[in-house]
Design goal:
By secondary structure, the protein is of the alpha/beta class.
Length: 222
């Protein structure tokens, strides 16, 4: 099955480079291109691609707002958004993920890694570059007041599920979580599936956001 991709970036050279590598991949196809957030929304609604590769800074409407509008619209909610940008500051990272993006990558990553990320997101999983996870931790560590208690959204989960959620929030893979908790990878997958259902989370990235907002990820304050 071919993965259909919409490229949203205001720089023609960036779109051309991505189009070239995507076209060379047998399982990927560029369904359309947009140079603004508003165009990305229209193309997504018209073409119903599997993945939108979304830049953040674009004229008239940025990629964060475009991502939010795509993911909350029932007609396009199934489309996955992979944010790809050179602007990797903390506020952009958090805003993009909070808007519903299923992944966040930076443009200096290897092209093969970007293609792999498109496949991961299209398959229904989520992906955050490790460096992005570290920036998220710093962003929450620098907030003026720590979360005093977990919000109601996590009150319905068990202690074991809370432990798994905290490790997901730290950016750990299922294999790493299994090793840390001395359980099998299959058991971790079961816990993650339960968390997605109980917390009404869109994907693993959404679980990361919930873990941070619930104060389950330990941070250091400078």
């Amino acid at each position: 099955m071919t993965i259909r991709v919409v490229l949203a970036d205001d720089q023609p050279l960036v779109r051309a480079a991505l189009r070239m590598v995507i076209t060379d991949a047998a399982d990927l196809d560029v369904a359309g291109e947009a140079s603004t957030g508003a165009e990305a929304i229209r193309l997504t609604a018209d073409l119903q691609p599997d993945v939108v590769v979304m830049d953040i800074r674009m004229p008239s409407m940025d990629g964060i707002e475009a991502t939010r509008l795509i993911t909350i619209n029932p007609s396009t909610a199934a489309v996955r958004v992979l944010v790809l940008t050179t602007f990797d500051h903390d506020e952009y990272v958090y805003a993009a993920l909070r808007a519903g993006a299923s992944g966040f990558l930076v443009k200096d990553m290897a092209l093969d890694d970007i293609l792999a990320a498109i496949r991961v997101v299209a398959a229904g999983d989520a992906l955050i570059a490790p460096a992005v996870t570290r920036r998220l931790i710093r962003e929450f560590a620098n907030r003026p007041e720590p979360v005093s208690q977990p919000p109601p959204v996590v009150e319905g989960i068990t202690e074991r599920e809370r432990d798994v959620l905290a490790l997901v929030g730290r950016g750990m893979s299922n294999t790493e979580i299994a090793a840390a908790m001395f359980i099998t990878v299959a058991t971790v997958k079961t816990y993650v599936t339960r968390l997605l259902a109980k917390l009404d989370a869109r994907d693993r990235v959404h679980l990361v956001i919930i873990a941070y907002e619930a104060g389950l990820v330990a941070t250091r304050r400078s």
